[in-house]
Design a protein that fits this description.
- The complex is a heterodimer.
- Chain A has a domain at 62-301.
- Chain A has 15 helices and no strands.
- Chain A has helices spanning 6-31, 36-48, 51-76, 84-101, 107-136, 140-163, 204-221, 223-233, 235-240, 245-262, 264-272, 283-293, 298-321, 327-342, 344-361.
- Chain A is globular.
- The two termini of chain A are 20 Å apart.
- Chain B has two domains: 7-100 and 180-257, Rossmann fold; 275-531, P-loop containing nucleotide triphosphate hydrolases (Rossmann fold), CATH 3.40.50.300.
- Chain B is 33% helix and 24% strand.
- A six-stranded mixed sheet of chain B has the order 6-7-8-3-9-10, with helices on both faces.
- In chain B, strand 9 (229-234) and strand 10 (237-243) form a beta hairpin.
- The chains are: A mainly alpha, B alpha/beta.
- The interface between A and B is medium-sized, with 21 and 34 residues.
């Protein structure tokens, strides 16, 4: 297949994919008797039209950045980590254990400790599939997806049997101490002029942005990143160059799991302030779409996470304020994933003739 | 002989001056540009039916583009195609097949886990049920096998076949689709000398049956051996079309490169020093329990090139792998480098520890081992040496700028074209890719250089350059282990020649006291009297 110019590949293809997803979503909304224009208005207005909407959109964005980066790091090592969901849930357990351990004097210290806890637990949950892949050749796609279920079951056990305060009915941990409460956008000087303190977006958004830079530097500026990318491109060549497959698979998956686990500082520590069942709400899976759409580059991941944050929040608003059922949010997300992730080759093929004639005429 | 730039065009202007009848293929004024690169410039060529026509040129001369236009992969910007005298528009490969053109690609397009028969009918099935198609194909195949020496077991699964047999399947595919014109792109690149000979017998048989064959190659010997006429391409232009019997390899080489080329690099007599590499009774048993090396012993001294001749698959690859730090299986024996024993298996045997010991390795397969094709040239220059102190900015980060600067220098010294460190390795020609690998491995002044198939898929101008660099490294005092399936290369570069067959060294010879015939016998496992080692 002929190559498209870089700008078309990076900008035009995703835009057209999105447009196609939007058109089909509109057709479905029309078919069930809704008004697509109203749907778009409500979505845009609800997600981006007010500081309140932005507060939610950026909250979701934060989670998706972490899980998207997790998929990205593993992808560059040639590993398809679809266990982000389980790793994020385990990250939540790490956060809960850290936050409940001490009456934290200040949120910043708590954040640091909780980040370490989240990353360690997430990494540990990725470590077993990684080891099985490196040493036993067990396919990482299979093992990571199975670990999602084991992780969910483990969390339920921990909530019911260990973390649930005596006398409490619902399977959740105790509320975290006040010292572990992360400032949300309404409580951060400067941002508080725009946001109310009701929004869930919190300081972990900035941790997510820092993680984007860190992942970029790791992959393209460090020796380990070089080894990860080399191994991901060609395993045999990597061995020739003296790169240890075991080391790359283990480290890349530990970092990937750690990033997925880090998501918990946003949803568990920043928002719910206690550990509940299924806290990650599928963000681990959304991370796959985010990484695909973001072309496995941290900047792309950031933009894609923003888009999915918008879809998440906008979709919720649509379900709330229109007669269109909230389930349609899933349809729109599904279509976006389908077009940007799975069908972008099709879009590229559609575009190729235009560029070919353009070049021929030149 | 005629060497005029316009020979091709003259032929067009004066038809039937050579053979009676209409050309099987005639291209008139074909041009094709990719962006600013003019891959084909006003190319005209006529190929008479029942002849073997060679197209020769360096990598990047535009041979493959021209054939891709003929096979419908690209559309020409300008020009016309005539098949058997009729103007023909070839929009895709289906149209090419309908026009009677069959193509055998350098990299085979076979389904690895299908049988020969299934591959042959793939895309040419007649109807929804496979059984009648298979039965018909089986009959046709038996007939073709008999007629053209194209024997292949129709029920064999492709992955179980040797490369030579896989190629026969490709030819059978084309013939099954009733191709009258067969295009072969670098067909011998992957074949042993024996298999290549067999291929040439097949091609002569096809020619005798009136098929027209276009042979794309950069190997002068093949052109001289089998073609009737040969067209030379250089930088997108057809510089000459000549009758093979009226030209010489030297003249063709000069036409290809545009300057005089030395087919043999002159070198002084070796001044060997102390023993650098000492291999004793090396045995390798692969994962399937097959013995790949059965007790190999050899020594290489400083300032000496030991050439290993042999048909591919007789243990040369495993020898290079063990020395280069791979573990191709269970390894026994002793290997020492300048008196220090090398760790042969386990965590101490990696490419990293080998490089630290002063062993550089130009691997046989540069696409799968030596380079990361998607990586930029500068990233490939660091490949394997990415931990080198001069490539680190500090404890945390690599110094990409330093690597890029180093790459610029290496590209200039090794004449890598284009000298752009940011270009991915895959966009360089084979010769330039190999120069990138060589620059990386040679410039660290290794004690021992392992070099496998240094000029495989490399154009003729670059071969001379690569050979010179290897000899220079020898003269600087390095020990060099050269593995090549090209006997000519072994004979012209080596100071001593060891022949491998079935995992063993059959014997050692001095290049000036042996010849291709004797080496060929040793390569086939026939010990000659002098070789009773």
């Amino acid at each position: 297949m002929a190559k498209l110019p870089t700008w078309a590949d990076l900008v035009l293809v995703p835009l057209i994919s999105l447009l196609l997803a939007a058109v089909i979503s509109a057709l479905v909304i029309l078919a069930i008797g809704g008004d697509p224009v109203e749907a778009v208005t409500v979505m845009v207005d609800g997600a981006l039209g007010s500081p309140y909407g932005w507060g939610y959109t950026l909250y979701y964005t934060t989670s998706f950045i972490f899980t998207g980066l997790a998929v990205t790091v593993a992808y560059h090592a040639g590993q398809f980590n679809i266990g982000g969901e389980g790793q994020a849930q385990l990250g939540g357990l790490g956060v809960a254990l850290v936050c409940l351990a001490l009456p934290w004097p200040h949120w910043s210290i708590a954040l640091l400790a909780a980040s370490v806890g989240a990353a360690l637990f997430g990494a540990a949950w990725a470590a077993i599939p990684a080891w099985l892949q490196a040493k036993r050749g067990s396919h990482i796609v299979i093992t990571t997806i199975m670990f999602n279920y084991i992780g969910a079951a483990l969390i339920v056990y921990m909530l019911v049997e260990v973390l649930r305060p005596i006398g409490q009915m619902d399977p959740a941990s105790a509320r975290f101490p006040v010292g572990a409460k992360l400032p949300n956008f309404g409580e951060i000087p400067g941002l508080s002029l725009i946001f109310s303190n009701k929004v869930p977006a919190n300081v972990s958004f900035f941790v997510a942005i820092a993680a984007c830079f860190a992942v970029w530097a790791l992959l393209w500026r460090t020796r380990l990143g070089y080894e990860i990318r080399a191994f991901g491109k060609s395993e045999s060549a990597a061995v020739y160059a003296g790169i240890s497959p075991t080391k790359v698979i283990m480290l890349s998956m530990l970092i990937s799991g750690g990033l997925a686990g880090l998501m918990a500082i946003n949803n568990v520590m920043g928002e719910s302030e206690r550990l509940v069942q299924n806290a990650s709400e599928g963000a681990g899976f959304i991370g796959i779409a985010v990484a695909l759409m973001g072309r496995n580059h941290p900047f792309g991941v950031f933009l894609a996470a923003l888009l999915f944050g918008f879809l998440y929040q906008g979709g919720a608003e649509m379900g709330l304020w229109t007669t269109i059922p909230i389930e349609l949010r899933l349809l729109v997300q599904g279509l976006v994933i389908l077009f940007t992730g799975a069908l972008d080759t099709m879009v590229r093929m559609m575009l190729t003739p235009f560029f070919r004639t353009a070049r021929g005429a030149a | 002989m005629t060497l005029g730039k316009d020979t091709g065009r003259q032929a067009t202007a004066a038809p039937s001056n050579m053979q009676a009848g209409v050309p099987a293929i005639e291209l008139r004024g074909i041009s094709k540009a990719f962006g600013p690169v003019q891959a084909n410039k006003d190319i005209s060529i006529r190929v008479m039916p029942g002849t073997i026509h060679g197209i020769i040129g360096e990598n990047g001369a535009g041979k493959s583009t021209l054939m891709s236009i003929l096979y419908g992969f690209y559309r020409a910007d300008a020009g016309e195609i005539f098949i058997n005298g009729r103007p023909t528009t070839i929009t895709d490969s289906q149209a090419a097949i309908r026009a009677g053109i069959g193509m055998v690609f350098q990299h085979f397009k076979l389904v690895q886990n299908f049988t020969v028969l299934e591959n042959v009918i793939l895309g040419a099935e007649e109807g929804a049920l496979l059984r009648p198609s298979l039965a018909k194909a089986r009959k046709t195949l038996a007939h073709l096998a008999e007629e053209y020496e194209l024997e292949v077991d129709p029920e064999a699964v492709i992955e179980a076949l040797s490369v030579g047999h896989q190629q026969r399947v490709e030819i059978l595919k084309a013939l099954y689709r009733q191709a009258d014109i067969l295009i072969l792109d670098e067909p011998t690149g992957v074949l042993t000398p024996d298999e290549a000979d067999h291929l040439f017998r097949i091609l002569r048989g096809l020619k005798a049956q009136g098929k027209t064959i276009i042979l794309i190659t950069h190997k002068l010997r093949e052109i001289m051996e089998i073609t009737d006429r040969v067209s030379v391409m250089r930088r997108g232009e057809m510089v000459a079309t000549v009758t093979t019997s009226e030209t010489s390899p030297e003249a063709l080489a000069e036409l290809m490169v545009g300057r005089k080329v030395l087919l043999h690099v002159p070198k002084a007599t070796a001044q060997p020093g102390a023993t650098v590499l000492d291999v004793e009774n090396l045995r390798v048993t692969d994962g399937a329990g097959v013995a790949r090396l059965k007790g190999v012993s050899l020594k290489i001294r400083a300032g000496e090139i030991l050439g290993i001749a042999g048909v591919a698959g007789n243990g040369q690859s495993e020898l290079l792998e063990v020395l280069g730090g791979f573990a191709p299986g269970k390894i026994e024996g002793r290997v020492s480098l300048s008196g220090q024993d090398l760790v042969l298996s386990g965590p101490g045997a990696t490419g990293e520890t080998r490089r630290a010991a002063g062993i550089a390795h130009v691997p046989e397969d540069r696409h799968h081992l030596g380079l990361i094709l998607d990586f930029a040239a500068w990233e490939n220059i660091a490949f394997g040496y990415h931990g080198a102190p001069d490539y680190q900015a500090n404890a945390l980060f690599m110094d990409n700028d330093a690597i890029i600067r180093d790459t610029e220098g290496k590209m200039a010294r090794f004449d890598v074209r284009p000298p752009n460190p940011q270009l991915p390795a895959k966009s360089f020609s084979g010769g330039n890719q190999q120069k990138i690998v060589l620059a990386r491995e040679i410039e660290r002044n290794p004690v021992l250089l392992l070099v496998g198939q240094p000029t495989r898929g490399v154009d003729i101008g670059a071969i001379e350059f690569i050979h010179r660099r290897i000899v220079e490294l020898r003269d600087a005092g390095a020990a060099i282990l050269l593995v090549s399936v090209e006997l000519e290369e072994i004979l012209s570069l080596s100071d001593r020649i060891a022949v491998m067959f079935d995992g063993q060294i059959m014997g050692e010879r001095l290049p000036d006291q042996t010849n291709e015939r004797e080496l060929g016998l040793l390569m086939a496992g026939v010990a000659t009297e002098a070789g009773a080692a």
